[in-house]
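If you are new to this repository, start here. Below is one unmodified record pulled from the training split, so you can see the exact layout before writing a loader.
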Amino acid sequence: RYITSVGKYIVISTMGVYDSRLGKQTPDEGRIFIFDTDSKSIVNTIDPVPESISSGKILGIGDHNVVGITKIGDSKENYKTIIYNVDIKTNKLVYKMELPLYCTTFNVGDNEGITNNYILGPNGLIWTIFNSFTLATINPSNGKITIVGKVPGATNSLVFSGTRLYAIRKYNSIAEIKYK
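And here is the target side for that same chain:
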């Protein structure tokens, strides 16, 4: 599960799991739940990528958009990375597209990676890692990718301090990342 805020809403991204209590089948897709903080209730659900069991990592953009990244496929060899933008006020998909690179926000064999390398930067762009070492930005309004540099090996998380970008690496070492 991932969670973000968008205006007065809290948005939760989920993945389909078997309901052992009620004995329901595992859903085929992940779902986004939209919680209104005024009414204190879930006011809508959206299935942004019906072909994926997870709606993936999400970031709130502005007052009413959620940009998510997930994958489809059953092994690293045939994964397809999908990015999407949903307008939660209109419940419309702004865009959904396959990215040309494998996004390493996911652990191999696990649709929900335990990393924080899909973040919103101070410039309003999404920062992430592709193909293990490629640092890139994604324009949330149109999904356009720009390669901006490389990350040190075994980077688990990205974090900004002001405009300086840091990588939290395996074994908890921290390295500043230079980018263009």
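Two things worth knowing about this chain: The two ends are 32 Å apart (CA to CA). The mean pLDDT is 84.
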